[in-house]
Write a structure and sequence with these properties.
Helices cover 68% and strands 0% of the residues. The chain has 22 helices and no strands. It is elongated and about 100 Å long.
């Protein structure tokens, strides 16, 4: 069982020197000319030369203190030379020797810097979680917060939510990771069942509301994204609680044109539809269904071309069914089947082909003629795949630099082998994730098609019952006159003329009346 630490004492003078871009003083070392030369090279910013010399010392020097020092400074030299993945290999070698290594905490700090530089939430967190040590209490407060966040993230990933909550709650309010920790705490609370058998929605809302308030007004792309996720998360929780009015209010707060905007438009369409079922008046019901159809009109606009929009057709058909406009519902469903049934077949055929992990990565990166564009766009929007792709590009770039930037020798061979192993690992990891994500999307599509078939059956059944009820009644056999809802004097009304304007998206509302008895 791991334990969470809430404060640290710092690393003293060495930590301060490292944080300021230290210069290692040769005068303090009495271990021979070789180590002195490596130090001189390091202090002269000749990091690759220093790495080679430190690597020699680490391999042949029988003096334990010198070997320990050289093992760490190989990693530090490579990091400063911009070879991040080779540096990871050597930091990890020091870290995995545990706290008995005098540079254990320095290697921990190096790994954390690497994770930040590579935007890594997989490689370093796994290593830190496995090697969690009592010595972490001596890390600086910032680094300790990062460690606790990483361990919480890994614990959540493997399903140990109790441990994940313990570590995530230990992240300090001043930490960079604090809003992210709150977000995952909120997600976990919304997913879990409380003591009374219900979901922990109230606790989840508190986490997300605190998160939104914490980052409100802060600038920066990453901070703003977490703020949008907090708003979207709250809206989803209120929807799950049946508080559709509050849910709609929060969906409206998601900024226009942001990455999450289409999701907010679509999900608010469901919220309007669910609110309509609770309306006591026909006018209120028609107004909300009109809002639902208006949101789907926006989602299906050319502005979102290429985005994954399959479920929008299902919701649109459902709305027309609610209005007893069966002909329109069938028209929407026919269009859905025409577009998405061939897409499912294309995805299934693509999955049945024999492809290496490299080819799956290539398909994600470049696309394929026989692979649906809309599904690929869904893959591209996956943040995990985006990070893996960036890191794979970095590995390959470092391999090219290594070929031209380091003289032949044992270290160059080691680094080339390490980069080749890491490239193979990343290709394997990313290739499998691409395939898994495609399988997930395929399952979603099949589910939407099943829903659409069910609506189609219900629509046909309702039409038959309506016709049976109308037999023998002259009044009911007359086609229903379609009416346009009345508008208050001065209320603007523009008919859609086939043109989409970006600033109008999200404001459409269908003028519809219910044909239900």
């Amino acid at each position: 069982m791991k334990f969470a630490v809430h404060s640290g004492r710092g690393l003293g003078l060495l930590r301060c020197i490292l944080a300021s871009g230290f210069v290692l003083a040769a005068a303090q070392v009495s271990t021979g000319q070789t180590l002195d030369e490596a130090i001189v090279a390091y202090n002269s910013d000749k990091y690759l030369e220093a790495a080679v010399q430190f690597a020699v010392i680490a391999q042949v020097d029988d003096r334990l203190g010198d070997r320990y020092r050289a093992e760490y400074y190989v990693a530090q030299s490579l990091f400063r030379a911009g070879f991040l993945f080779p540096a990871y290999t050597f930091y990890r070698k020091v870290f995995e020797q545990g706290s008995t290594h005098p540079h254990f905490l320095d290697a921990t700090d190096g790994l954390l810097q690497l994770a930040e530089a590579l935007d890594d939430d997989l490689l370093v967190p796994e290593i830190i979680s496995r090697g969690y040590d009592q010595e972490f209490e001596n890390l600086s407060a910032d680094r300790l917060n990062t460690v606790n966040y990483m361990v919480g993230l890994v614990s959540r990933r493997v399903g140990n939510n109790a441990e994940a909550e313990e570590f995530l709650r230990s992240v300090n309010i001043d930490a960079y990771e604090y809003p992210k920790a709150l977000y995952y705490l909120g997600v976990m609370a919304a997913e879990e069942t409380g003591e009374n058998g219900g979901k922990r929605y109230e606790q989840a809302l508190k986490y997300l509301q605190t998160m939104a308030k914490h980052v409100e007004g802060d600038s920066g792309e990453d901070v703003e994204r977490w703020h949008r996720l907090a708003q979207l998360g709250q809206a989803r929780i209120y929807y799950a609680m049946g508080a559709y009015e509050k849910s709609i209010e929060l969906y409206k707060l998601v900024p226009r044109y942001s990455e999450e905007w289409m999701d907010a438009l679509f999900e608010s369409g469901w919220a309007y539809r669910m609110r309509s079922l609770n309306r006591s008046s026909k006018k209120g019901f028609e107004s909300d269904i009109g809002r639902t159809l208006g949101m789907m009109h926006s989602v299906q606009s050319p502005y979102f071309f290429g985005r994954f929009r399959a479920e929008s057709h299902v919701l649109k058909a459902t709305a027309y069914f609610d209005l007893c406009r069966y002909a329109r519902a069938k028209e929407v469903l026919d269009g859905f089947f025409t577009q998405y049934e061939p897409m499912v077949e294309a995805v299934e055929a693509f999955l049945q082909t024999t492809r290496t992990d490299e080819l799956w990565v290539q398909m994600w990166d470049e696309g394929a003629v026989d692979f649906p564009h809309e599904v690929r766009r869904r893959l591209i929007s996956n943040h995990r795949l985006g990070r893996l792709s960036h890191q794979l590009f970095r590995i390959r770039s470092e391999a090219k630099r290594l070929a031209n930037g380091l003289p032949p020798g044992r270290l160059k061979e080691q680094l080339a082998e390490s980069l080749a192993d890491q490239e193979a690992k990343w290709v394997r990891l990313m290739g499998r994730l691409v395939r898994t994500q495609i399988q997930t999307i395929q399952a979603f599509l099949r589910g939407f098609i099943s829903q659409a078939r069910a609506i189609q059956f219900e629509t046909t059944d309702a039409e038959l019952k309506k016709l049976e009820g109308a037999q023998g009644s002259v009044t009911q056999s007359i086609p229903h006159q379609v009416r346009t809802p009345a508008y208050k004097r001065g209320q603007p009304f523009w008919r859609f003329n086939g043109e989409y304007w970006r600033d109008e998206l999200g404001y459409y509302r269908y003028a519809v009346t219910s044909l239900c008895p």
